[in-house]
Design brief:
Elements lengths: L12 H6 L10 H19 L6 H16 L7 H5 L6 H20 L9 H7 L3 H21 L4 H10 L3 H21 L1
C-alpha cells in the first residue's frame, strides 16, 4: 500500500496557527537577540567574516561613483581595500530590506508614509525638511561608522562576539548615546 503525501494547505487553520508568530507586530527582544547571535556565529562559521552593514553602504557609494568616474574610483585607497562591488554583506543589507517588507506585510503594519507621527508632532509635516534632516543624519552616521571602523552591528554584534576591546567600548558609547537621545526625544 503506497501512502500519499499531502501537500500542506496554505490557508488551513492549522497552518495559520503554526505561522502566527510571523505576523506578530513585535517580537521578543530576547528571541531576536538569540537569533542575531546564532546568525552571527553561523556567518563566522561559513564565511569567516563578521556581520556588518556600513561597508555595504560605502561599497554602494563607490558603485554609484563608478558610474560617473569609471575605474578611477578604484584608485582610491579605501576602494583598494573594499572593492565597490556587490558581495555577501551587500546582499545581507538587501535581505534586511526585503525581510522588513515581508514582516510589515505579514503583521499588517505596512504603510507608505513620508513623515512619522512623532516627527510631525515635533517639527511639522514639511516633507522636504524631513528628507534634508534624514539625508544629513545618514551622512553623519556613515561618517561616524567609517571613523569608528564599523557600525553598531559591526562593533555591537560581531566585535563584542570576538571580545574586541574597541567594540565593547563602542557598544558602551552606543548605549550612552542612545539613552541620552531617548531622554531628549521622549
Amino acid at each position: 500500500m503506497q501512502r500519499r503525501l499531502r501537500s500542506p494547505q496554505l490557508y488551513s487553520s492549522q497552518w495559520r496557527e503554526d505561522m502566527e508568530w510571523l505576523s506578530m507586530q513585535r517580537w521578543s527582544p530576547y528571541a531576536v537577540g538569540v537569533g542575531i547571535g546564532l546568525l552571527s556565529c553561523l556567518t563566522f562559521l561559513l564565511s569567516n567574516k563578521p556581520i556588518g552593514f556600513s561597508t555595504a553602504f560605502s561599497r554602494t557609494a563607490g558603485m554609484i561613483e563608478r558610474l560617473f568616474r569609471g575605474n578611477k574610483v578604484l584608485e582610491k585607497a579605501y576602494y583598494k581595500k573594499f572593492s565597490p562591488s556587490i558581495d555577501w554583506d551587500w546582499m545581507l543589507v538587501l535581505g534586511i530590506f526585503v525581510g522588513a517588507f515581508i514582516s510589515a506585510k505579514l503583521s499588517g503594519q505596512f504603510r507608505v508614509g513620508w513623515i512619522p507621527a512623532r516627527w510631525a508632532d515635533a517639527f511639522g509635516e514639511v516633507v522636504f525638511i524631513r528628507w534634508v534632516v534624514a539625508f544629513i543624519g545618514g551622512i553623519v552616521l556613515q561618517f561616524g561608522a567609517r571613523w569608528a571602523g564599523g557600525c553598531t552591528s559591526g562593533h555591537g554584534i560581531s566585535g563584542t562576539l570576538q571580545l574586541a576591546i574597541s567594540s565593547w567600548l563602542a557598544a558602551i558609547c552606543f548605549f550612552i548615546g542612545g539613552i541620552g537621545t531617548a531622554m531628549l526625544i521622549l
